[in-house]
């Protein structure tokens, strides 16, 4: 296997043109922290873009940052924190390192603030990239109000490097919250928790996170969160300026007074708690277990969770996004036949409750065998193939990363 390591956009262009002319496929990677998300790419060459690193422009007053795709997320977030700003979509860290900006945009995974702040694609303003045709193109811009032409940044976001190799990204950033508190209700069932989360999300509490940890699902060994251990925990995050947070917290206490035992986390503990939810910390320790990310209508979160537990004994799970996101861990699913059976059971449950499932972590053999992403209806699958052919007619870039025949 040959590794190509371009140092700038021109060298990325040369590498893709060489691969296109030679009829050779490329696996596009950065630092590799999200390499295990998606199907394995069987390509003879690796295009390593980790050298394309650095912040090109940062205008705090305009809430806009432009950086190269190989720039570490941790480096960018430290820079933003120095100006009391942040990525509102809370990109998750699935490894000891955060990964890169390009990896976050390519996989389009959002954290607990997703229902309030929007998805990753809602924050990508502009992109410069090299298509599988060997063409350098720019799309979008560097202003928040940008409606020129087709919205290609949204298409490139979440395409897992199958359409183009990003060489520059412009992202919208937002002010960081001055204060935060987390209210935790202990001892609720999943059904009670979903009803409680729905009522709170529809209230004037203006929470920026709502999750449910069932009994026995620990956030982390050192988690300072009361209620996040033996008993179940329904948690709500309130953010903003101090007086507003305190006022909304007092109102929320009154609203939930009869719902169960209540505890409140201070700023530091609250930040720790929601980082754990963002990074799926309850299931981080067992790298041998498979991990599914399941989206369902929030009102059906408890129902889907119960059905999944009934079909998959030994499964562990928790709810985020007010019940709309289920993180499901299946221990001992390294065996391909067992993994195929588990996938079928998950898809069957979702056919009843609605939603879709993505396999986030499993062995390479399992990820080759199962449908990592939700199978597409025939018309949508045909459209996906046409889009791939328009951007990458010779299937040079990450072939098979999302679907085997794309």
Task: Describe the structure concisely.
The chain has helices at residues 9-22, 73-82, 101-107, 114-117, 152-156, 190-201, 242-255, 267-278, 301-311, 336-353, 364-369, 378-391, and strands at residues 2-4, 26-29, 45-48, 55-59, 64-67, 85-86, 124-131, 136-140, 164-172, 174-175, 179-186, 209-213, 233-240, 261-265, 290-295, 316-320, 325-330, 356-361. It is an alpha+beta fold and 406 residues long.
Strand order in the sheet with the most strands: 4-5-9-7-8
Instruction: Give me the strand/helix succession.
Output: EHEEEEHEHHEEHEEEHEEHEHEHEEHEHH
The tally of structural domains comes to 3
Gross geometry? globular
Helix content: 25-40%
Low-confidence stretches: 221-229
The CATH class label of the largest domain is: Alpha Beta
Strand content: 15-25%
CA radius of gyration: 21 Å
CATH architecture of the largest domain: 2-Layer Sandwich
- How many β-strand runs? 18
CATH topology of the largest domain: Uridine Diphospho-n-acetylenolpyruvylglucosamine Reductase, domain 3
Q: Structural class from helices and strands?
A: alpha+beta
Mean pLDDT: 93
Let me know the largest β-sheet: 5 strands, antiparallel
- End-to-end separation: 22 Å
Number of helical elements: 12
Describe it.
The protein is of the alpha+beta class and 406 residues long. It folds into 3 domains: 2-175, Uridine Diphospho-n-acetylenolpyruvylglucosamine Reductase, domain 3; 179-278, Alpha-Beta Plaits (2-Layer Sandwich); 286-369, Alpha-Beta Plaits, CATH 3.30.70.600. The chain is built from 12 helices and 18 strands. Strands 4-5-9-7-8 form a 5-stranded antiparallel beta sheet. Strands 12-13-11-14 form a 4-stranded antiparallel beta sheet. Mean pLDDT is 93; it is low at 221-229.
